[in-house]
Amino acid sequence: MFDEHLEVLLADADWAKNIHYDLRYRVYCLERGYEDPQAHPDAREHDSYDDTAAHFLVRSRESCEWLAGVRLVTVPFESLPMNRVCEVYKDQLPQFKSDEIAEVSRLCAIPTKRMDFAEGTSTSWISMGLIRAARSYALEHGIQYFFFFISDSLARILKRVGIEFTPIGPVSNYRGERRPYIHDVRFGYRDMEKKAPDVHEMFCNKPGYVLASRSYRTVPKSNTRRIAQQSPYGSLFASRSI
What we know:
Blueprint (H helix, E strand, L loop, with lengths): L1 H4 E5 L3 H18 L22 E7 L5 E8 L27 E9 L15 H16 L4 E6 L1 H9 L5 E2 L4 E2 L3 E8 L7 H4 L1 H8 L5 E2 H4 L20 H4 L3
Parallel strand pairs: 1-9, 4-5
Antiparallel strand pairs: 1-2, 2-3, 3-4, 5-8, 6-8, 7-8
């Protein structure tokens, strides 16, 4: 279902990264108020982590609209964004090299029609597509662990579809109550086939993403600025941002 309607691109060109910054400005500055719009006069929310991060985008095949984005911050553990705002129990961490970890952050989406993969869930196909893409990238680049700084409720939602998380610190009050989690990129999906067979089938499909620079010979337009004043509805990312 996901690949019939949506595509995920690795933003390996400046124009594609700018679309992610546009999405973030719309959600983090205008909608959620997490960041100061005045600090981003170009209407693009970005920071010092973006230069070395891997950025992913979701685009609708039908409407050609850009719907969501996320980034993987690949810096040494002590420099991860979450370490600025939360406590981590370092004695509970596995051993890893500095180039074997990444933090999943700046996950956001514009309001759009829901594409839930199972009745009664609040996790969308869009979120699954972004996680699949991030995992594919990690496996290709030797990244063994993801770090998340998310709410316990979101962690429980993702666990219901077989994505395993281990808490590694106490709850912190930062944009709501959030906790640091670690996720094993290789082995954190062992129960997915049983818990969510449709999602498991999607995760088995290749490729998890395509390169933006190879997919578009001309720079596609961003839709995020013209819809910046729409009211949010029905999107996981409009109500839950990392």
